[in-house]
Amino acid sequence: MKAAVVSRFDEPPSYHDVPVPVPQKSSEMVVDVVATALHPRVRSQADGSHYTSTGVLPLVPGIDAVVRDFRGVLYYALLDDTAMGTMAQRTVVAKDRVVALPNTADPVAVAAALNPAMSSWVALRHRINFERGSRVLILGATGSAGRMAIQVAKRFGADQVIAVGRSPQRLSALTALGADRVLTFDQLDTAGDVDVVIDYVWGPPTAKGMVDLLSHRRDRGKDVIWIEIGSMAGPGAEILSAALRSTRLQIVGSGIGSVSGDTFREEIPSIAEAVTAGAFDVRTRTAPLSDVTAVWTQSLGEDERVVFLP
Ligand SMILES: NC(=O)c1ccc[n+]([C@@H]2O[C@H](COP(=O)([O-])OP(=O)(O)OC[C@H]3O[C@@H](n4cnc5c(N)ncnc54)[C@H](OP(=O)(O)O)[C@@H]3O)[C@@H](O)[C@H]2O)c1
Fold first, then answer.
1. From first to last of its 310 residues, what are the pLDDT tens digits of the chain?
2. Residues whose beta carbon lies within 6 Å of some atom of ligand 1
3. Is residue 303 a part of any domain in this protein?
4. Which CATH number characterizes residue 125's domain?
5. InterPro entries attached here (predicted)?
6. Which atom of ligand 1 is nearest to the CA of 170?
7. Residue 89 backbone dihedrals phi, psi, to 5 degrees
8. 86 lies in the same domain as 35
9. How many structural domains comprise the chain?
10. What is the dihedral of CA 256, 258, 262, 268, to 10 degrees?
11. For the domain that residue 65 is a member of, what is the CATH number?
């Protein structure tokens, strides 16, 4: 069968013949991959930079997919860390770690939307005690996960959502998704008192933005919870001690480890149902897996989420 194969961390995957995977346990099954998306998390798996990387090569990238079993039943599969990922014609999944999808599910939309939607959905439901009526600020709101976070926060009852990004042009499209205000990073001092920050950016923009946001807080006795979810601008951010002393700032993270695999999987049916019902605006572009090497590089920075059809 064919698969995308990473042989070196400094090169994009190439399209190769690989052996059909064989289940190692009775609790596993081989499935056909129907649609699998190129999330930033997959890029960091394939370049070895993700914090879960074991350094093992070669590997087939891909952390999730819509798959089909031998009876024709569709599932969403979220894989544990493995060198046999989803960017292949077939892969191996644990039977208790797949979630059956309704017949009406659109495989491309589900493959594209689950990972970015899940990030804020799980964070707001499991990492904090999110209250209806909260004011939410999203850093990196122009990306796939940020765009979903606007819609998820509104769905969960946010009173106001402030979308923050670096491109005024990209930000201008976000009010249609439910953002009440859009700001560039250098306008964070005007954001006012927010209750929750959802951060996909980290790095220097967060370090500066945190100071700008917190030092202009009117009510410093009110809690503000900063949820770290992504690190598009860098893995580290300098946090000033004064930020933690002078406001009621709490910083938490949300991702694999701080949220259990079981918790992620428990939420999948509800998110898949919302995606299938058309609750989210999902931008996708499909490509054959045979084009993986070219598409990997060309699609960097694109608005649409690439979904490979093996
Ligand atoms: N922990 C979890 O559960 C989880 C789940 C899903 C995703 N994530 C993480 O969340 C992050 C975003 O994912 P995504 O799917 O939204 O990616 P994406 O679609 O590629 O969007 C990336 C976002 O980051 C912004 N950005 C990139 N580099 C930046 C920089 N140097 N300074 C400021 N902003 C920058 C982009 O702004 P422009 O629009 O201006 O380019 C865009 O808003 C990734 O780190 C991903 O791994 C985590």
1. 999 999 999 999 999 999 999 999 999 999 999 999 999 999 999 998 887 788 889 999 999 999 999 999 999 999 877 889 999 999 999 998 899 998 889 999 999 999 999 999 999 999 999 999 999 999 999 999 999 999 999 999 999 999 999 999 999 999 999 999 999 999 999 999 999 999 999 999 999 999 999 999 999 999 999 999 999 999 999 999 998 999 999 999 999 899 998 899 899 989 999 998 999 998 999 999 999 999 999 988 778 999 999 9
2. 39-41, 115-116, 119, 140, 142-146, 165-167, 170, 200-201, 205, 229-233, 254-255, 301
3. yes
4. 3.40.50.720
5. ADH-like_C, GroES-like_sf, NAD(P)-bd_dom_sf, Zn-ADH-like_protein
6. 39
7. -70, -30
8. yes
9. 2
10. -70
11. 3.90.180.10
Name which residue sits closest to atom 27 of ligand 1, judged by CA.
232
Write out the residue range of the structural domain in which residue 79 sits. 2-100+280-309
Please indicate, yes or no, if residue 265 is contained in any of the structural domains.
Answer: no
- For residue 266, tell me if it sits in a domain: no
Q: Which of 42, 43, 232, 265 to mutate to test the pocket of ligand 1 (most atoms within 8 A of CB)?
A: 232
Nearest CA to ligand 1 atom 26: 232
Q: Which two tokens stand for residue 159?
A: 């009173």
Asked if residue 297 and residue 203 are part of one domain, the reply reads: no
